[in-house]
Amino acid sequence: MDVLKRKILATFAAAGLAMALPAGSLMAQSWPEEPITIVVPFPPGGSTDLLARKIGEAISGPLGQPVVVENRGGAGGTVGANYVANADPDGYTLLMGVTGSNAISAALRDDLPYSPTEDFDPVSIVISSPLVLVVRSDSDFETVEDVLTYARENPDSFTHGTPGVGTSMHMSAELFGLVSDTSLVHVPYQGSAAALQDLLGGQIDAMFGDILVTSEYITSGRLRPLAVTGTQEHFLLEGVPTVEEAGLDGYSAFSWQGLFAPAGTPPQVLDTLYAAVSDALQSDDIQALFRERGFLVEGMSPAESKQFIADEVAKWTEVVDAAGLKN
Amino acid sequence: MDLLSGITLGLQTALSWQALMFCFIGVTVGTVVGVLPGIGALAAISLALPLTYYLDPTVALIMLAGIFYGAQYGGSTSSILLNLPGTATAAITCLDGNPLAKQGRAPLALFVTAINSFIGSTFAIVLVMGFAPVIAEFALSFGSAEYFSVILLGLVAASTMTSGSAWKALAMVVFGLALGQVGTDINTGQFRFTFGQYALADGFSLVALAMGLFGVAEIISNIGQPPGTVHSVGRIRFRDMLPARGEWKRIWAPTLRGSVIGSFVGALPGTGPGIATLMAYATEKRLSKTPERFGHGALEGLSAPEAANNASVQAAFIPTLSLGIPGDAVVAVLMGAMILHGIQPGPNLITNEPEMFWGLIMSFWVGNILLLILNIPLIGLWVKLLSIPYHLLYPGILIFICLGVYSADNNVFDIYVVLGFGLVGVLMRRWGFPATPVLLGFILGPLLEEHFRRAMLLSKGDLLVFFERPISAIFLALSLLFLGSVFLPGLRKRLGRQATDT
Fold first, then answer.
1. Closest residue of A to B269, CA-based?
2. Which of A55-59, B220-224, B265-269, B487-491 has the weakest average pLDDT?
């Protein structure tokens, strides 16, 4: 009886304490006490899935809790992102978000049920990867200049394929058009493989493609890289200029992936998570994997990431508005 | 590397004890998820994928691929026995498979599907071995104009598919087309008919639609049936499985045609076994001298689609392995698995990873033999399913359907969709509206629209593009022929005897 009484008393005391203190801080000190879920807003097998699983594996040890990856695909990543935006901000449900789900969608859609800037506390923008403008190797386009000359002389004729409206491939091309003041024809597909198929088959002229995927076709001599969209030469494509070096001043675009928590997550939790992610990024294993995949390690802090997201949303909103793409 | 040394290398890989074991696990899991309504290859592979991270890449792929083609064997079992498609693509198998079972010939139907699946697979595997790069290059010459014409041919061919009222069938095609409109418009990114539901942004899932209209509807329709429907099943003798002498000749030609159609459709990226089975069934019905037997247990209507879906699944590896372009949604996940294991699929795969390429292909063959060995003895066991009373069997199946539909995207909304379509399916049955045309419109409609609009975008709105490109023109001509063969007999009668002389 006595034991039970003491237990009840202790429970009440704990409850009282919990009410007296800001709820978050108590929770944050003992976090994590249960398994952590990283939601991947795409089906298994893609690069976001791989990244989430590798990062999850690496931070699970130091945090002392299992990390589970859950795939919730749909609507270009926005279904999964919306799920996390509405999850409890307790640090147990996280999102591996991407350019589309956590920046471009805000620019593109009025009816987006969440706000990438307000409904998330970023943990870290983990990696970035530029895209590459590729054409078939038997095409007449040898340089970016050739493309621009052709596009200026033949407006609405240069066709490029993308995996859909609002993907980073699409937005990189729209930005290309805006900066160079040319109008390219956007040909959207269901997924990048279908676009690649039509590029190889000669149905379209070009594509802003994933570096890793296209590098296979570049080394086999089927595709020719004209420029990378980032700010520096990419280690998988040595000797290929950036779009800016090729003559488009101020052009830079790349896709990125990062870990996000729902807004309102206690800062201590974010810091603990960030420290674990940051350590993971130093490991030789992950460095080697990222190199092989063509990823550039970013590892931004929560504060840097927040600023980065705000800048990205602003940048793509400008492009969407200028190109008249708003839905 | 020549064919013979490739085969030798492949057999060395595929016959190692590890490869054999995981191949067996794969095809067994595949058969089981195929039999269970709702849980299909896509869901099973997605669930199994993370488990393979620690396996050797080739072995992992052998197992995952085994699930994929194993499911095609299992999918027809529940279609035949219970009129519940085990996988979305096995819905067509219900049409003639289930009537056969109701005539007490379930062992025969199951035997024929196992053999046909094997023949269809073998046909496509030989194509992959000998001609993968050539076929893949040919598939590359298909642009949106060609795809449009092929799909139009499919639609025209399949429109003559169902028996019963043509108007009701047509209405259901339109219903399917309308359902296919729901989702994101590819060209503009606009949401269409989603009614503010984000869960509808990618449209209805094919699995949820097929499982609702065929599976849940069948279960609900059987509620309140007298318990007398329980079959008593005796010992199945091997003799019961064999077709009668006259029946063999109804099987072999449709099987071959089905294999060809399946291989062709499967090798074209972006299509899939759903289209292959529809086209194979429609072709057989069109070619048949006695089309009225279709839907009442015609062996042709069972054989052709079964051969086609297996051929299509194996042929889907042609563009994947030789070009790095996935043939359908499931192969896309398999490709993801390769990438996770550090193998980049692309045009260099066959030269860079000959062991994996040949090992995988030979494992298809080994796997199909295993499936045959596995499935024929199982027939007796499956048929016993019929003796389970409905009030025990159906709740279990409903649970599997919900689980399967949910596991595809971890989305509860899909469960409401499957139940909703179950109710729609019940109403359709009550008033005699067939369900297959809904699938037809739902699968082909969005593809037709996508390729038509892309062809228009690329030709700057010039409709002549469909006639100027030779492959497209050929398929359009075939569509016209097909239409002609439907309307001409009537026309001839009206024009009188003279016309028939010409």
1. A194
2. B487-491
**What is the arithmetic mean of pLDDT over B18-28?**
94
A70/B410 Cβ within 8 A: yes
Q: Look at residues B381, B390, B439 and name the one whose alpha carbon lies nearest to residue B218.
A: B390
CA distance A44 to A22: 38
> CB atoms < 10 A from the CB of A193, how many?
23
Q: Using a CB–CB cutoff of 8 Å, tell me whether A216 touches chain B.
A: yes
Q: Residue B182's closest CA among B200, B199, B198?
A: B200
User: How far apart are the C-alpha atoms of B161 and B27, rounded to whole Å?
Assistant: 32
Q: List beta partners, residue A14.
A: none
CA-wise closest residue to B141 among A47, A318, A201, A275: A201
Q: Beta partners for A227?
A: A133
> Residues near B180 by Cβ (< 8 Å), separated by ≥ 6?
B203, B441, B442, B443, B445, B446
Cβ distance B333 to A45 less than 8 Å, yes or no, reads: yes
**Residue A283 forms part of a structural domain:** yes
B373 or B411: which leads in pLDDT = B373
Quick check: B369 pLDDT over 60? yes
Nearest CB among A49, A82, A187 relative to B198 is that of A82
Residue found by looking up tokens 């309308």 in the block: B178
In chain B, the residue whose alpha carbon lies closest to the alpha carbon of A41 is B409
Using DSSP's 3-state secondary structure scheme, residue B439 falls into: helix
Whole-structure pTM value = 0.86
Say yes or no: A168 and A190 in one domain: yes
**In this structure, are residues B79 and B397 in contact, taking their beta carbons and an 8 Å threshold?**
no
Q: Which domain covers residue A203, as residue numbers? A: 130-228
Assess whether A113 and A162 both reside in one domain.
no
B421, B209 Cβ separation under 8 angstroms: yes
Kindly list the residues from chain B whose CB atom is less than 8 angstroms away from the CB atom of residue A53.
50, 53
Q: Which residue of A has its CA nearest to B52?
A: A45
- Please write the tens of the pLDDT for every residue from A238-248: 999 999 999 89
Domain boundary among the residues A212, A228, A244 is at: A228
Residue contact B189–A108, C-beta within 8 A: yes
Query: Could you tell me if A139 and A114 lie in one domain?
Result: no
Phi, psi of A120, rounded to the nearest 5 degrees: -130, 145
CATH number at residue A87: 3.40.190.150
Measured CA to CA, the distance from residue B457 to residue A187 in angstroms comes to 7
pLDDT at B377: 86
Domains identified in chain A, total number: 2
Query: What Cα–Cα distance (Å) separates residue A194 from each residue in A204, A269, B239, B271, B430?
Result: 11, 41, 48, 11, 41
